[in-house]
Specification:
Radius of gyration: 13 Å
Order of helices and strands: EEHEEEHE
Structural class: alpha/beta
Helix content: 25-40%
Number of helices: 2
Amino acid sequence: MAVLLAISGLFKIAPALASSEQRSFTQMLNLGEVRMAIPYGQISYVNAKNQIYGIAPDLARSIGDYLSTKYKKKIQIKIIPSPQGN
């Protein structure tokens, strides 16, 4: 049985971005905010009752911790859910 971790308030949820808002990885690091697109599904990511469940938010937290340590500054991961198959 898979245990889903409830993570609330740790990540910003962003709507899909217009092409004019796209940034390079270097630009995102300089701003301290990296965007991570993830599939919206029952196992990888679910936003229910203002809580985030799934594997992807846990992975985003780990990536954020790693980048914060590597670049010695606070890096926030912004999760962008996308429909499955896209």
